[in-house]
Design a protein that fits this description.
This protein is of the alpha/beta class. The chain is 41% helix and 16% strand. The chain is built from eleven helices and 13 strands. It has a seven-stranded parallel beta sheet, sandwiched between helices. The protein has a two-stranded parallel sheet with strand order 7-10. A two-stranded parallel ribbon has the order 8-13. The N and C termini lie far apart (44 Å). The structure holds nicotinamide-adenine-dinucleotide and UDP-4-deoxy-4-formamido-beta-L-arabinopyranose.
Length: 341
């Protein structure tokens, strides 16, 4: 029998790529999304890439009633919970919206999983929980730092909620994947990252600048204590990241976990600076990205990258795609969306 996975936020950037990889790996997938940060095109993209008539339910994970209908309509043994709001700045302005949408929806899902006997949860956590680590690279044992935004705090709170609810419920298992900086797009260019409004994240800002939608990129600071003065991050290809979810779900289904609740870093283990990333993008795609150096962005950490040993050895997962491939895919996607030849 095929295993089924409920993918909340499955029309989003990471959720849509994960739906594709799950289907490629032989899983049945049900996508749930309220389209607060996405639209039907992503679901159509998943269907076109996989050739599967993937069921889609428009529902808000904050609504227990809407969600429960889905728990009654479909049979699944695992949930991957991507649905959340993710803009750090907005979370400072609207903390309650973030606590409701990110924490409230997670509690809803976990309660319904308990009620309907659904055992396995993969939760989208973030390297933001490490803040600026004292020692690099960050391992899963690196202490979490107090969150500097309500968004970051929701990730810490949800990790703890998952740990506690898994401990209290027999048969239940949970994996928190701490993503570093997800970038790129599917090689088909049928799905990718499409932020609404002015992008907060680096790569969408670069692709939109290359496409002429933004005049120039602002590089936030060149006076950090790093080789070229710009910040260091661990940029993980979204298809590689999607595959980490497939192995995480399998691990729980096959009972391979060492504990009921586990945490894994999902990154490449390789630090890349902002300037290196911009230059690589220009070189690989043979396109200009005008940029200027400006002051530091408030809240940015200087450097963070992953120790990926645990994911490599325990999950048997490793990032495979090169930065060149990833940045080429990001540009192909932007060109397709903007109709650039
Ligand atoms: P995204 O905004 O593209 O995807 C999230 C999806 O969830 C969207 O399609 C949105 O419409 C949907 N959604 C939001 N609230 C919902 C609700 N209440 N009910 C139903 N659907 C809802 O974001 P993403 O980059 O794909 O991120 C997915 C997850 O990964 C999020 O939990 C995010 O916090 C986490 N994460 C993202 C990054 C990143 O840099 N992209 C890094 C670390 C962690
Ligand atoms: C990367 C680097 C910027 C934009 C954020 C969240 C984090 C996680 C991932 C969800 C930084 C620089 C950026 C620009 C720039 N999300 N930059 N000009 O800040 O590492 O992480 O997304 O969990 O929680 O905080 O990612 O892509 O915004 O920035 O110079 O226009 O690019 O200063 O060094 P960040 P980012």
């Amino acid at each position: 029998m095929k295993n089924s996975v409920l993918v909340t936020g499955g029309a989003g950037f990471i959720g849509s790529h994960t739906a594709v990889e799950l289907i490629n790996a032989g899983f049945d997938v049900i996508i749930v999304d309220n389209f607060s940060n996405s639209d039907m095109a992503a679901v159509e993209g998943v269907r076109t890439i996989t050739g599967a008539d993937v069921p889609f339910e428009k529902a808000d994970c904050n609504s227990r009633e809407e969600l429960e209908k889905i728990f009654k309509k479909y049979k699944f043994d695992s949930v991957i919970h991507f649905a959340a709001s993710k803009a750090v700045g907005e979370s400072v302005e609207k903390p309650l919206m973030y606590y409701r949408n990110n924490v409230g929806s997670f509690v809803n899902i976990l309660e319904l999983m308990n009620k309907h006997g659904v055992s396995n949860m993969v939760f989208s956590s973030s390297a933001t929980v490490y803040g600026q680590p004292d020692v690099l690279p960050a391992t899963e044992q690196t202490p979490r730092k107090p969150a500097t935004s309500p968004y970051g705090n929701t990730k810490q709170i949800c990790e703890d909620i998952l740990r506690d609810s898994v401990a209290a419920c027999e048969g239940m298992k949970g994996i928190a994947l701490r993503y570093f900086n997800p970038i790129g797009a599917h090689p088909s260019a049928l799905i990718g990252e499409l932020p609404k409004g002015v992008p907060n994240n680096l790569v969408p800002f670069i692709t939109q600048t290359a496409a002429g939608i933004r005049k120039e990129l602002s590089v936030f600071g060149d006076d950090y204590n790093t080789p070229d003065g710009s910040c260091l991050r661990d940029y993980i290809d979204v298809v590689d990241l999607a595959k980490a979810h497939v192995v995480a779900v399998r691990r729980m289904i096959e009972n391979k976990g060492k504990a009921k609740y586990e945490i894994f870093n999902i990154g490449t283990g390789v630090p890349v600076s902002v300037l290196e990333l911009v230059n690589t993008f220009q070189k690989v795609n043979n396109v200009k990205v005008p940029y200027k150096i400006v002051g530091r962005r408030q809240g940015d950490v200087e450097a963070v990258w992953a120790d990926t040993k645990l994911a490599n050895t325990e999950l048997g997962w490793k990032a495979e795609r090169s930065l060149d491939e990833t940045l080429a895919a990001a540009w192909s996607w932007e060109k397709r969306v903007r109709n650039i030849k």
